[in-house]
Amino acid sequence: VALLHVPVRPHGHTNALSPFIAAGMPHPPNVQLHPLSRAMPWPLQRWHSSRMFAWRLRHYLQHAPGVITDSGNLPILVRHLKLAAWLVKAMPALRFAYEAHEVFGDTASASQQEKQRALEQAVMLGAGAIIANSGATAERLQSLYGPAQRIAVIPNGVSWPDSLPAKPWGEAAQHIVYAGSFFPWKGVHELMAAAARLPGHRLQLIGEENINKINNLRQISGTSGATLDFIGRLTQGEVMARLSAACI
Q1: pLDDT averaged per 10 residues in sequence order, the chain, 248 residues
Q2: Residue 73 contacts by C-beta under 8 Å, 6 or more apart in sequence?
Q3: How far apart are the C-alpha atoms of 25 and 20, rounded to whole Å?
Q4: What residues contact 217, with CB distance under 8 A and at least 6 apart?
Q5: Do residues 199 and 172 lie in contact, with contact meaning Cβ atoms separated by under 8 Å?
Q6: How far does CA 240 lie from the centroid of its chain?
Q7: Which phi and psi angles does 134 have, rounded to 5°?
Q8: 113-126 vs 135-145: helix crossing angle, rounded to 10
Q9: Nearest to 101 by CA among 80, 132, 143
Q10: What are phi and psi of 78, to 5 degrees?
Q11: Potential cystine with 11: which of 22, 76, 190, 232 (Cβ 3.0-4.6 Å)?
Q12: Residues 38 and 16: beta-carbon distance below 8 Å
């Protein structure tokens, strides 16, 4: 298995980590890692785009031995909607499975909804197979864009811990943790509005390092509400440790 990925350097780490280390998993011996940067070359490395990653991905697919042959291509799984739509357009003969974790045509803002639905429709028509994370996701995709050639439902999973530490319930207001993406539909703005009404509370937020986004969120919560700690990105093991110690 070849895993093509954007190298990520979590907060506090000087070097990019293996995706398996970041996820707290052992590196399977049959998986080869191929980091593909989405950044421009030096000295423009601060500029990045999914299109840069897509160009490098196409170069890999076209030149890696055994990936594409006259009779077809090796099984390919794509997780990113914009990347999947780009592959449909740039490499129409490529057959791949698209993993759908949500319906972007529904979750996108009003100004982006038409664009996102066009991307999803292209992928639904062009992908060799769709893997949805729930029956509801699969049904909604097909209701919007028509039946897919092949669609399967594989629900999200979780590794449940064997035990949890004792919780300091008497100080629960000081042990509130959010971990995840900061996209608008995740509810972070609503969380900030709630924090504005919770003076004396402390809230840790894990997953965002963009200072402009953080400052915008601080403006929503104001200065008289909960104390906010923006932790940035952490490895999966560090995230799980903070969640395990949280009361809320």
Answers
A1: 83 73 84 87 73 89 81 87 93 92 91 95 95 96 90 88 88 96 86 95 93 92 93 86 93
A2: 61, 67, 94, 95
A3: 5
A4: 182, 188, 189, 192, 205, 228
A5: no
A6: 17
A7: -160, 160
A8: 100
A9: 132
A10: -120, 135
A11: 232
A12: no
Q: The pTM is what? A: 0.74
Angle 151-153-156 from CA coordinates, rounded to 5°:
145
In angstroms, what is the C-alpha Rg of the chain? 21
**Of the candidates 103, 107, 148, which has an alpha carbon nearest to the alpha carbon of residue 128?**
148
CA angle 43, 59, 39 (to 5 degrees): 25
CA-closest candidate to residue 120, choices 92, 135, 95, 140: 140
The end-to-end CA distance of the chain, in Å, is 38
What does the block give as tokens for 182? Answer: 């900061």
CB of 148 closer than 8 Å to CB of 130: yes
Residue 95, exposed/middle/buried by CB under 10 A (0-12, 13-18, 19+)? middle
Q: How many residues does the chain have?
A: 248
Kindly state the tokens that stand for 28. 């399977």
209 in Cβ contact with 232 (< 8 Å): yes
Token pair listed for 131: 């893997």
- Give the tokens for residue 110: 């009003």
How far apart, in whole angstroms, are the C-alpha atoms of residue 11 and residue 210?
11
Per-residue confidence (pLDDT) for residue 44, from 0 to 100:
65
Q: What is the DSSP pairing of strand 97-100 with strand 77-78? A: parallel
**Alpha carbon distance 49, 128 (integer Å):** 26
